[in-house]
Design a protein that fits this description.
Elements (H helix, E strand, L loop, with lengths): L5 E5 L3 E2 L6 H19 L3 E9 L3 H9 L4 H18 L6 E4 L3 H16 L3 E11 L4 E3 L17 E11 L1 H14 L4 E2 L1 H11 L6 E2 L1 E3 L6 E2 L2 E6 L1 H15 L10 E5 L3 H14 L8 E4 L2 E3 L2 E2 L10 H19 L7 E2 L2 H29 L15 H8 L3 H22 L6 H22 L4 H10 L15
Parallel strand pairs: 1-3, 1-13, 2-3, 3-4, 8-14, 13-14, 15-17
Antiparallel strand pairs: 5-6, 5-7, 7-9, 10-12, 11-12, 15-16
Helix pairs in contact: 1-9, 2-3, 4-7, 5-8, 7-8, 9-10, 10-12, 10-13, 11-12, 12-13, 13-14
């Protein structure tokens, strides 16, 4: 019996304080592409996304909306799930940290850390950013303020907390990242973390006083668990809750650079302390910028799912985000760029090629049968997908589209007769099927339409991507 290889991929679980913006959408679309690729390779996939529903930031957002926090996150969870459905995101688990079973597992793991001597009580004094839900070192601040959040989200705080002995595990983490035992990619993000690890790393405050919206510490109910600590544990707790333990550890944590430190340092340190296996890979993308500024809810410049879907449709949105993927550096985007790219690559490029070949086939009564000759990815495209260079993979597919277009213009099938035109068009159909197969993880609806259209008797169909 063939045993399927297992592949566990996660997005970060996102803060439940607003609707998703372009950064959340892109990270989730990229993860979906990787999950679909592995599924097409015959692997057994576990794909997790979800919401981080506790903490001061969420409680404040609920208060602003004049709602009870639980009602607030319940409504948001439904919204996020509906957006992922619209974007054709095929996740297996939508993890919510208000799940009581998650709270139980978090309590058990922290108790274990305390019993092992990895947690102690002390006073913390310093600058705290509500937006990031973390205490900030001087190096993280610009003129005493958090660069990512408004000044009103930063305050001085002094309180009794419980601390995790993060510093104890830093030498092992540093060595692990340097030696590739903790595989962190791309290289630019690995270097950032290694540089930061050269500085002094303080122990991590893992609890908060006066933040009632959270998981209570089992041994001190005045304190709630620091939201980032319990959020990271979701990747593990989900495998227990949904009885998917055989998928642990994660094959890939896919995230944006704002979460790099938490996933590359704090999370492995917690796992080492708990004697649990480490993730097999952590991949960190850059940010989307508009006019050089990071896109974010707190900065009020976010591009929403409605904006994107309303204008470009599902696969149009998936394409534009992937084509502009901030692989190792940040990417500057705006609607004029998206419009131009949509028209040139989708309406004119892929859409026009499919339409003109379908019309030629219809005029020449081409019937291809239902055999799909292509059942694998092109090697260069596969390599790009394996390295998460999703934008490069798309570029290679569009090179193929361009080559087929050039071949049609060169051979002029409208001037050919009899067997010459038939054999040329059949060969062209095979090339389009090959393009559609390679497009499956990226544009699932479009590739399915193309494969359906170019099987059996080939007929013209409505434009895949109407011009804007």
């Amino acid at each position: 019996m063939h045993i399927m290889n297992k592949y566990y991929i996660t997005t970060p679980i996102y803060y439940a304080n607003d609707n998703p913006h372009i950064g959340h959408i892109a990270t989730t679309v990229f993860s979906d592409i990787i999950a679909r690729y592995h599924k097409l390779q015959g692997e057994d996939i576990l794909f997790l996304t979800g919401l981080d529903e506790h903490g001061e930031k969420v409680a404040l957002a609920a208060q602003k909306a004049k709602k009870d926090p639980q009602q607030f996150v319940d409504e948001l969870a439904k919204k996020w799930q509906s957006y992922w459905e619209k974007l054709n995101i095929k996740y297996d688990i939508f993890m919510r940290t208000t799940n009581p079973e998650h709270a139980k597992i978090v309590g058990e793991l922290l108790t274990q850390l305390k019993e092992n001597g990895d947690i102690y009580r002390a006073t913390y004094k310093g600058v705290y950013c509500i937006g990031c839900e973390e205490f900030k070192a001087d190096r993280d601040l610009v003129n005493g303020l958090c660069p990512e959040h408004h000044p009103d989200q930063v305050c001085q705080k002094e309180e009794e907390n419980y601390f995790f002995k993060l510093s104890k595990y830093i030498p092992e983490i540093k060595k692990g990242i340097a030696d590739g035992i903790i595989p962190l990619e791309p290289e630019s993000k690995r270097k950032e973390i290694l540089a930061r690890l050269e500085e002094e790393v303080r122990d991590l405050s893992i609890s908060r006083q006066n933040v009632p919206w959270g998981i209570k510490l089992p041994w001190d109910e005045i304190q709630t668990v620091y939201v980032w600590v319990e959020a990271l544990i979701n990747y593990f707790s989900a495998t227990k809750i949904y009885k998917k333990e055989e998928f642990w550890p994660a094959d890939l944590h896919f995230l944006g650079k704002g979460n790099n430190w938490f996933h590359s340092v704090i999370w492995p340190a917690l796992l080492l302390a708990l004697k649990l296996p480490l993730p097999k890979k952590i991949f960190v993308t850059g940010y989307y910028n508009i006019g050089g500024k990071k896109v974010g809810k707190s900065l009020g410049n976010a591009i929403s799912a409605e904006n994107l879907l309303g204008k470009y449709g599902v696969d149009g949105t998936r394409y534009l985000l992937t084509a502009s993927m901030p692989y190792s550096t940040d990417t500057d985007v705006d609607f004029p760029w998206f419009d131009e790219k949509y028209n040139s690559d989708l309406a004119n490029g892929l859409g026009n090629l499919v339409a003109r070949v379908a019309k030629l086939c219809e005029n020449n009564n081409i019937n291809i049968g239902n055999e799909l000759p292509c059942d694998h990815f092109d090697v260069p495209i596969e390599l790009a997908l394996e390295e998460f260079k999703l934008n490069d993979a798309l570029y290679l597919i569009w090179e193929k589209i361009s080559l087929v277009d050039k071949e049609i213009n060169l051979r002029k099938p409208w001037d050919l007769k009899g067997e010459d035109v038939k054999s040329f068009l059949i060969q062209t159909v095979f090339e389009i099927q090959d393009i559609a197969y390679n497009l499956q993880p990226f544009l699932p609806e479009t590739s399915e339409k193309i494969l359906k259209q170019f099987s059996g008797e080939i007929k013209s169909a409505p434009a895949l991507f109407p011009r804007l």
